Amino acid sequence: MPSSGDDLFTREDPIFENKELLEINHLPEEGRIVGRDDEISDLANAVNPAIFGQSPSNLLIYGKTGTGKSLCAKHISAQLVRVAKEEGVTAKFAYVDCAQDNTETQAVQTIADSLNDPEVTTIKIPDKGLSTSTYYKRLWKVLDSQYDVVLVILDEVDKLDDDDILMQLSRAGEAGKLTDCKIGVIGISNKIKYKDRMDERVKSSLCEREFVFPPYDANQLRDIMQARSDAFKNGVLEPSVIPRAAALAAREHGDARKAIDILRYAGEIAQSNGSKTVREEFVVQARERAETDRFRELIRGSTPHSRYVLQALAVLSLNRPDEDGFRTTKIFDVYEEICRQEGSDTLSLRRVRDLLKEHAFLDIIEQSRHSGGSAEGSYTEHQLLEDPDVVRKVLVETDEA
Ligand SMILES: Nc1ncnc2c1ncn2[C@@H]1O[C@H](COP(=O)(O)OP(=O)(O)OP(=O)(O)O)[C@@H](O)[C@H]1O
Ligand SMILES: [Mg+2]
């Protein structure tokens, strides 16, 4: 007998009760934010003047990937808006992902558009077509006619083409662009070198307060996952799953995104295997997928040369799996070869060294100093922390995109 539609499909998800809790863009409520009390209260402190309608400090948040920077910035901004309202102050925040809106014009457009209520202001903010300075003029009007205070979160701020928008936003009050509205900028970056690149004037106005978010340890990762375990149906999650996932994620990076991804993938693997429970063995497979995602996200929007340098190290690591480090000059040789194949000029050895440092900060690679004895002096070796096959696969797909 042909099966009827009824028994072809499962009508109820056997694994997940509330999968949104594990989705990438889910913003957890306060009770589910774990281990960031100090950071949150520091941020609150810095933006506190906004509650009285005064200027909040401009801040810069640094830290490795998955340390809760975007989450805490959004959380504190939303809380600020809520409390300000209770005090009779009209506040709002705008969020810009600078990896996506990486030009000054796009970023201003996004800010203006997300804050503008055309019914109140009668101002139009078209997606494109206006000059940068016109977008600014409209933004200032929107701000002055609607708000007492506004916070602008510039996430992945290092991906911006240039610093002009930072200058404009952080000086809007002083420069007389705004008469009523106060503005606070929250810059977020996972590039340690970002600040060195910044123009001195921008630095002094943007970096009034700086915060560094440390990676999570295994206990914190376990608590973060535990706080979302109601994403799963009762009894589905075997007790060893979260501790195992936390241990894996902490050993490598202390990255909460990866920890949560592992949990979601482990559930999906259970689903596709038709398993009734999420078992510890699924965690290992889930980790591989999370690792690939993580690396893809880390290099999103990176420059071609930054990728060539990694590719060079991946080639070396694949060719000589037994070696546990490669010297800068060796990497540089392979990098030059890759540039030749790509028909691209090469950067200086010094720039390549800087790019390697950036990768080290993100824990994509690890650097170690060695002393080569009196004849040689000391030198640095670099080792890939990501699986070289993952690196190569993701870099190839990025170059084809
Ligand atoms: N303390 C925490 N409690 C609960 N969930 C957390 C915590 N920190 C991070 N997360 C979750 O982990 C994921 C990554 O966090 P977030 O996006 O804030 O990282 P990030 O520091 O901005 O990383 P990146 O530099 O890659 O942008 C998000 O899904 C977030 O909800
Ligand atoms: Mg982020």
UniProtKB/TrEMBL annotation:
<comment type="function">
    <text>Involved in regulation of DNA replication.</text>
</comment>
<comment type="similarity">
    <text>Belongs to the CDC6/cdc18 family.</text>
</comment>
<dbReference type="Pfam" id="PF13401">
    <property type="entry name" value="AAA_22"/>
</dbReference>
<dbReference type="GO" id="GO:0005524">
    <property type="term" value="F:ATP binding"/>
</dbReference>
<feature type="binding site">
    <location>
        <begin position="67"/>
        <end position="71"/>
    </location>
    <ligand>
        <name>ATP</name>
    </ligand>
</feature>
<dbReference type="GO" id="GO:0006260">
    <property type="term" value="P:DNA replication"/>
</dbReference>
<keyword id="KW-0067">ATP-binding</keyword>
<feature type="domain" description="Cdc6 C-terminal">
    <location>
        <begin position="310"/>
        <end position="395"/>
    </location>
</feature>
<dbReference type="InterPro" id="IPR050311">
    <property type="entry name" value="ORC1/CDC6"/>
</dbReference>
<dbReference type="InterPro" id="IPR049945">
    <property type="entry name" value="AAA_22"/>
</dbReference>
<dbReference type="InterPro" id="IPR003593">
    <property type="entry name" value="AAA+_ATPase"/>
</dbReference>
<keyword id="KW-0235">DNA replication</keyword>
<keyword id="KW-0547">Nucleotide-binding</keyword>
<dbReference type="InterPro" id="IPR014277">
    <property type="entry name" value="Orc1/Cdc6_arc"/>
</dbReference>
<feature type="domain" description="AAA+ ATPase">
    <location>
        <begin position="55"/>
        <end position="217"/>
    </location>
</feature>
<feature type="binding site">
    <location>
        <position position="228"/>
    </location>
    <ligand>
        <name>ATP</name>
    </ligand>
</feature>
<dbReference type="Pfam" id="PF22703">
    <property type="entry name" value="Cdc6_lid"/>
</dbReference>
<protein>
    <recommendedName>
        <fullName>ORC1-type DNA replication protein</fullName>
    </recommendedName>
</protein>
<dbReference type="InterPro" id="IPR027417">
    <property type="entry name" value="P-loop_NTPase"/>
</dbReference>
<dbReference type="GO" id="GO:0016887">
    <property type="term" value="F:ATP hydrolysis activity"/>
</dbReference>
<dbReference type="InterPro" id="IPR055237">
    <property type="entry name" value="Cdc6_lid"/>
</dbReference>
<feature type="binding site">
    <location>
        <position position="216"/>
    </location>
    <ligand>
        <name>ATP</name>
    </ligand>
</feature>
<dbReference type="InterPro" id="IPR036388">
    <property type="entry name" value="WH-like_DNA-bd_sf"/>
</dbReference>
<dbReference type="InterPro" id="IPR015163">
    <property type="entry name" value="Cdc6_C"/>
</dbReference>
<dbReference type="InterPro" id="IPR036390">
    <property type="entry name" value="WH_DNA-bd_sf"/>
</dbReference>
<dbReference type="Pfam" id="PF09079">
    <property type="entry name" value="WHD_Cdc6"/>
</dbReference>
